[in-house]
């Protein structure tokens, strides 16, 4: 697996410091994007926390996930969470090292007092002393939050005094893209009051230290004000894959005011699917999104492939990108009206932008949101082996179209691709194993690319005929 080194540079370590006004959580920022352009150490917020103990617990939860590896547990390098300022809130995000758990803490305006919230995205330093200090934060004393260095620090230090070089797999970036596709298919499936939420979450198994140990997937259905387990998927059920992966939520349970569970629609024959578990906190939301299996990272789900395979999505993404404005909730209908594109093409453009980390999805508000990460838009497409293989098959003339069916020849093997219920099926081993649950196989993807290319040529020929007739 390809690995690159991501370097975080900070002016000083993040810490909980004493001030004349009491204590302050100082979160130091690395280089990041803002409306004014790239900044070495952007500053997003300086003000008081209305619920300091709950905020500290939420930050620790995000940090716990960044430091965890749930599949084949072993010691790993910590990765610094991403923070985005959207003008009315701060979002802290992280992935587990195995890329199977996505964590996000949304600190909303009600939890922040006394300062404007900026716009932009950067990494924040999370170190061992900071974690220890956050675990001792109490509820009684005033507590400031500073996201970014103050002016004194900026003028005192000539350059970064803290650097971390962390090897990041390419799948970490792809995980950001896949989770927004996954979450966009979710609906609220259950809501629990605080007491029942805490009782249910505390009943779940804890992570095992055994290598690769997992309790597997469970199915949960609403039962009055609580949840109960069922032995198999049924309509209205929610999948809880690897329930021990929710253990990070233990940090925030004492502050919980409720629980909402999000997931896709399932049927009696459904395979395990992803789900999102959202803890309501005072002025905040803490959400963990779980991949369909402990052994499956989000990076390999293939949800972005159809959007990447559409040639027009690249130009659409360029158009939509200039209309983004760090909005905490991206309005698809509004983007469609501004861009002149239909909503389906806008969503495809947003998915393409998500491959460079520029778009996320908030299941709690059923809306996309804007962030910026230091990756180029084409990187995920170049690094996706299925998409590369599909384009190579098309270029090699391996696809033969025949109405609703197609034949794809690979070496001395031929695979039949058919259209059924709006999606393509294939006779290959990949389709037999996943049944489309991890995106299209390379053969179906190649057929889709070839058909779009044929439709484009037909449209171009028709336009040329019209223009030729008009000039006679």
From TrEMBL:
It comes from the Bacteria. The keyword Zinc applies. Residues 406-452 form the SWIM-type domain. One of its GO terms (molecular function) is zinc ion binding. The keyword Zinc applies. Keywords: Metal-binding, Zinc, Zinc-finger. It holds the Pfam family SWIM. This is SWIM zinc finger. It comes from Actinacidiphila guanduensis.
